[in-house]
Design brief:
The protein has 5 helices and no strands. With about 150 residues, the protein is mainly α. The chain is rod-shaped, with a radius of gyration of 31 Å. The relative contact order is 0.12.
């Protein structure tokens, strides 16, 4: 072994960063698939929310008088209430107002707005400002029940 010169150990070169290993491609594909699914659901939810809000607004816009608007709000709320409880559309008077306020603090329909909702559709005339306040409350509750908020 005379005269044999030993050389230092050479490390192999580091693997290149491109192209990535197949596992990284799979992870990237799954990430893109998840992002696409989330975007699709988000887009459908937004479209649903806009459609529900537009239905409420268009129905009230077609009502010629404040009393007709109150009647339309009552009808829309009763239809939406069936999503929460199938028997809710048959509630009357104070039971209906308590149902409208269920889960909401402070109660919004317990006072004048509730009375206006119960009786306003049968009045000859209704105060436009009171109807506008009721519209805000009814719209918020309708959107909640229809899953648009």
């Amino acid at each position: 072994m005379d005269g044999v010169v030993l050389r230092d150990i050479h490390q192999p070169p580091a693997p290149p960063w491109w192209p990535p290993a197949p596992g990284w491609w799979l992870l990237a594909a799954l990430g893109l698939l998840a992002l696409g699914a989330w975007a699709w659901r988000y887009w459908r939810r937004r479209r649903h929310c806009r459609a529900v809000a537009a239905l409420f607004d268009e129905t009230l816009a077609q009502a010629p008088t404040p009393a007709a608007q109150i009647a339309a709000m009552s009808e829309l709320l009763r239809r939406a209430a069936r999503r929460v409880d199938p028997a809710a559309d048959r509630l009357r008077g104070e039971d209906w107002l308590r149902f409208l306020d269920a889960g909401v603090e402070p109660p919004r329909f317990a006072g004048e707005p509730g009375r206006l909702l119960l009786e306003g559709g049968f009045r000859r005339e209704a105060d436009a400002a009171a109807v506008a306040r009721l519209r805000e409350l009814a719209r918020a509750r309708y959107l909640d029940w229809m899953g648009a908020r």
